[in-house]
């Protein structure tokens, strides 16, 4: 939009993006980038390593996934686990 005028339009666009989730495996060299004190998240580690030119490999997972950090997904995962293993 420009002011009150529509300048472009896409009907039901397909949006894709890669997100960070799951299990992270890091080599010991990552420890060199983590400060001794203070808050430092995984995102901080990735930014610091990228800025230093470190190689970071990824694995795309196209399978089933639940975010067990969300209560409803945790409950779903618990039900599915019980159904599969509590025979």
In short:
Helices cover 29% and strands 0% of the residues. With 87 residues, it is mainly alpha-helical. It has a domain at 24-57.
Write the layout of secondary structure elements.
Blueprint (H helix, E strand, L loop, with lengths): L41 H10 L19 H15 L2
Q: Which features characterize this protein?
A:
flat, mainly alpha, 87 residues
Q: Whole-Å distance between the termini?
A: 58 Å
- Number of contiguous helices: 2
Q: What is the number of strand segments?
A: 0
Strand content: under 5%
* Low-pLDDT residue intervals, each spanning 5 or more residues: none
Which class do the helix and strand fractions yield? mainly alpha
Provide mean pLDDT, rounded: 88
Morphology: flat
The ordered string of helix (H) and strand (E) elements is: HH
- How much helix, percentage-wise, in residues? 25-40%
Major β-sheet profile: none
Radius of gyration: 20 Å
Structural write-up:
This protein is mainly alpha-helical and 87 residues long. The chain has a domain at 24-57. It has two helices and no strands. It has helices at 42-51, 71-85.
